[in-house]
């Protein structure tokens, strides 16, 4: 279905699957459970999942987690549904919608322990996509490249407007193109103002 440029199985395992799993340790180290959740039974949302990276990979690796996968393109959603059915995943819920719309749905808004995003957008944009979906006290984790420091600094205001704060940037080992990658971990400190996320297309055109 031409969902990724990587075609060979070994390359997919190393550059996509292992890279998706690289965010697990930062989540394990930073997550603080509340009365209804622990690391073993997290409620996780993957925003802009594409070919199921990292959402489907996490669902396979952690069957105790509940994974909601948000993807706007019909072709990709069809693949995600097929892949989840083929593997027999019972812990995946696929939502076809834009992140800006998902953030205002009552059943999704501020309902997740952790939001993750990989290879989707700039941190300023991702903050507006993801943090409205995270419960207060939860985490937003963005998988980023080998040198995201300037991008992270520029995103501090956007993260703050969404009710969050940047906790840390964790170095992770990956067999992706550059080898060394990072996971940017943000904590949700307070509720996101109702006006966010802004209408579809606005976050990417006018980043905060």
Helical run tally: 8
Can you tell me the CATH superfamily?
Vaccinia Virus protein VP39
For the CA atoms, what is the radius of gyration? 16 Å
The CATH topology corresponds to Rossmann fold
In CATH, the architecture is: 3-Layer(aba) Sandwich
Sketch the topology as an H/E string, one letter per element.
HHEHEHEHEHEHEEH
The computed structural class is: alpha/beta
Distance between the termini: 34 Å
Tell me how many strands there are. 7
What's the topology here?
Layout: H1 9-21, H2 24-30, E1 43-47, H3 55-61, E2 66-71, H4 74-87, E3 92-96, H5 99-102, E4 112-118, H6 123-130, E5 134-144, H7 149-161, E6 164-173, E7 180-188, H8 202-205
Parallel strand pairs: 1-2, 1-4, 2-3, 4-5
Antiparallel strand pairs: 5-7, 6-7
Helix pairs in contact: 6-7
Structure notes:
The structure is a single chain. The protein has 8 helices and 7 strands, in the order H-H-E-H-E-H-E-H-E-H-E-H-E-E-H. With 208 residues, the protein is of the alpha/beta class. A 7-stranded mixed beta sheet has the order 3-2-1-4-5-7-6, sandwiched between helices. It is globular. The chain starts with 8 loop residues before the first helix and ends with a helix. 42% of the residues are buried.
Summarize, please:
The chain is α/β, with parallel strands linked by helices and 208 residues long.
Task: Give the key terms.
alpha/beta; Rossmann fold; globular; rRNA_ssu_MeTfrase_G; SAM-dependent_MTases_sf; transferase; cytoplasm
């Amino acid at each position: 279905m031409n969902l990724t440029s990587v075609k060979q199985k070994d390359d997919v395992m190393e550059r996509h699957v292992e890279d998706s799993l690289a965010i697990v340790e930062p989540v394990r180290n930073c997550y603080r459970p509340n009365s209804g959740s622990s690391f073993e039974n997290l409620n996780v949302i993957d925003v802009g999942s594409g070919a199921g990276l990292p959402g489907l990979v996490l669902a396979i690796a952690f069957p105790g987690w509940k994974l909601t996968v948000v993807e706007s393109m019909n072709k990709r959603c069809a693949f995600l549904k097929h892949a989840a059915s083929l593997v027999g995943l019972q812990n995946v819920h696929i939502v076809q919608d834009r992140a800006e719309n998902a953030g205002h749905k009552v059943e999704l808004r501020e309902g997740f322990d952790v939001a993750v995003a990989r290879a989707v957008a700039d941190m300023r944009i991702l903050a507006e996509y993801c943090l409205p979906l995270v419960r207060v006290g939860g985490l937003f984790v963005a998988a980023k490249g080998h040198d995201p420091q300037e991008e992270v600094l520029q995103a501090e205001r956007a993260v703050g407007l969404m009710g969050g704060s940047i906790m840390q940037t964790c170095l992770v080992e990956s067999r992706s193109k550059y080898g060394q990658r990072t996971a940017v971990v943000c904590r949700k400190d307070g509720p996101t103002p109702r006006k966010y996320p802004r209408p579809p297309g606005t976050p990417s055109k006018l980043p905060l």
